[in-house]
Amino acid sequence: MRRYLSLVPLVLFVVSEIHAACGVERWSVKTGTDPQAPSVDLSTYISSTIYNFYQSTRPASLPSNGRVAPRETTQYRLSATLTKYVRESDSDYHLVIQDSSGRTMIAELPASNCVGVGSPFGTGIAHARAQFDARFTATTSMKTTSTAVTLKGVGFWDFLHGQTGVAPNGIEVHPVLDITFGAASLAPIEADDDGIPDIVWPADMILDDDGGRVHVYRGGDAVGDVLFHGGAVVDDPSIRFLFAGNWTEQDKRAVLAEGRGIDREDKVRDLDRYGVRTFGFRVGAQALSIASGEVMDLDVQRALANAVESGRIQHIDPNVLYVVMLDPSMQASLGGSRDWLSYHSQFHPTELPMRYVVVRGGLDRAAQENAIRASVARALVNPAGDGWY
Q1: How many H helices and E strands in the chain?
Q2: Which of 208, 220, 265, 351 is 20 to 30 A from 69, comparing alpha carbons?
Q3: Phi, psi of 48 (to 5 degrees)
Q4: CA neighbours within 13 Å on the CB side: how many for 37?
Q5: CA distances from residue 221 to 11, 47, 226, 261, 384 in whole angstroms, order as listed
Q6: Is 264 exposed, middle or buried (0-12, 13-18, 19+ CB in 10 A)?
Q7: Confidence class of residue 303 from pLDDT cuts 50, 70 and 90?
Q8: Residue 123: which residues within 8 A CB-CB, separation 6 or more?
Q9: Under 8 Å CB-to-CB from 308, ≥6 apart: which residues?
């Protein structure tokens, strides 16, 4: 495999428009192609408030292709103030709405081309998207406004992953099926020009493709700055390398040797204080089918989900950490950025979380080893990828 020197600084590329995609996680529920979607009565609605949504207890688990009653089987109508909006890499319009007490929650408008044939929500999704486009222009830059809004849509439980404006329990309106606007007291402006930001994120925490936050590794000390965030850890880890694209047997063996040596790193062994078994990592490998060219995080998730659905990956243990090794032909981006060597995250192809690391292709041997070590170590103590802040 051809290698490229890692000493040349990585350049930040904005690639938001080069590779449009649709979402993966619970996508059938979000867009109405799950088996229970026809049971949602769209001829009626319940008037509600953000405060009322806050009172709901978050479910213990969320089915990947099913609904949690009553929130996800009911259409709601609520009025609030639209404060922020952005077009995400999964093509959704991500809206942040707020009540008079400052409570916020998310409402999402999917793109019509991301809605499967036969969805009972399809007409409403297209209608709401057209209503929004007639008033605002959503781009990949977050914009702020202060505009009265009344919307109707179906409740949805999302996984918490650092989304802007998310309700504490993860409840959303997704999809929005109708939206009307009152007078705006603040014309739309770029969020970066709106004074002090709500949260100052560390430089190595960036937006992913569906509005969450992900911790990336850009180089330097691979394991020295690993911090425990106080939540769930991967307590009995196995590492499974997934080789995407063209890899020689020699290069695969080198990667596997690195994987088997991770637990010999003193700083990795120190993670046992947080409940991680750091001796004798079980290491395996297999191929993962991803097309060459532009590769977004959503493409990685889709490839993993397809492998689980087809049975090529038996995903029955949340302690397995999947390390996706991309080849040099794959122009990988995360949330529009290519300024990283590796990152880690998780998603739910089933009710069971799938923890994964992505390592950029084309790195020299030393940079590749550091990228693997850095994101694996961070994933062990913060498997969601966004738990420090």
Answers
A1: 7, 15
A2: 208
A3: -145, -175
A4: 23
A5: 19, 53, 10, 17, 21
A6: exposed
A7: very high
A8: none
A9: 315, 349, 350, 354
Q: Express as a percent the part of the chain with pLDDT over 70.
A: 88
Note whether 154 and 28 are within 8 A (CB). Answer: no
Integer CA distances (angstroms), 342 to 36, 240, 280, 371, 389, in order: 38, 16, 23, 6, 20
Is the preceding peptide bond at 349 cis, omega within 30 degrees of 0? Answer: no
Phi-psi region of 245 (alpha: psi -120 to 50; beta: other; left: phi over 0): left
What is the set of domains in the chain, with CATH numbers? 27-193 (2.40.50.140), 209-381 (3.40.390)
Q: What is the pLDDT of residues 92-148, one digit of tens each?
A: 999 999 999 999 999 999 999 999 999 999 999 999 999 999 999 999 999 999 999
Residue type, 34: D
Are 295 and 303 within 8 A, CB to CB? no
| Lookup result for tokens 């911790």 | 215
| Closest residue by Cα to residue 363 from 214, 288, 251 | 251
DSSP state of 66: S
How sure is the predictor about 208, in pLDDT bands with cuts at 50, 70 and 90? confident
The C-alpha atoms of residue 324 and residue 336 are separated, in whole angstroms, by 19
Q: How many residues does the chain have?
A: 389
The token pair that represents 24 in the structure block: 């993966």
Q: Which of 215, 245, 258 is nearest to 355 (CA)?
A: 215
125: burial class by Cβ within 10 Å (0-12, 13-18, 19+)?
buried
Handedness of CA 142, 16, 112, 386 (dihedral sign): negative
- Residues 333 and 321: their CA atoms lie apart, in Å, by 21
Tracing tokens 């949260």 back to the chain, one arrives at: 199
Q: How far is CA 1 from CA 224, 329, 371, in A?
A: 29, 11, 17
